[in-house]
Specification:
Elements lengths: L27 H11 L5 H17 L4 H18 L4 H22 L8
Helix pairs in contact: 2-3
């Protein structure tokens, strides 16, 4: 018996975030916000928010060194995570590089890349 074909994660239809695991614990406004947050890819907005909150905290409590250090530590972790490639991004990058190399190979050595 053949195994069912798996659809790659990026092509699989996404279930509503608000109706998922956390949905029952949220009120209506939070469900709407969670649904909107589910459409955001990456960490750019979260990093910008962290920077804004850190700045406000430092303005309001400039003497609180512990708060500043914790805020900076969290910001560094978020920025580090932002620049790590996901498996999907690695695969996309790999496919793009392979395509460029095949294209260049076809131009430089057409008889060797006739089937590529």
């Amino acid at each position: 018996m053949a195994e069912p074909r798996r659809v790659p994660a990026r092509r699989r239809p996404r279930r509503s975030v608000a109706r998922g695991f956390y949905g029952d614990a949220l009120d209506d406004a939070e469900r709407v916000a969670l649904e909107a947050a589910g459409d955001i890819n990456g960490l750019d907005q979260e990093i910008a928010l962290l920077r804004t909150k850190l700045r406000r905290a430092l303005e309001e409590r400039p003497q609180d060194l512990l708060l500043m250090l914790k805020g900076i530590e969290l910001l560094v972790k978020a920025v580090s995570a932002r620049y790590r490639l996901s498996k999907e991004a690695k695969q996309d990058l790999s496919e793009s590089i392979a395509g460029v190399l095949r294209g260049l190979g076809g131009v430089l050595y057409p008889e060797g890349f006739a089937d590529a």
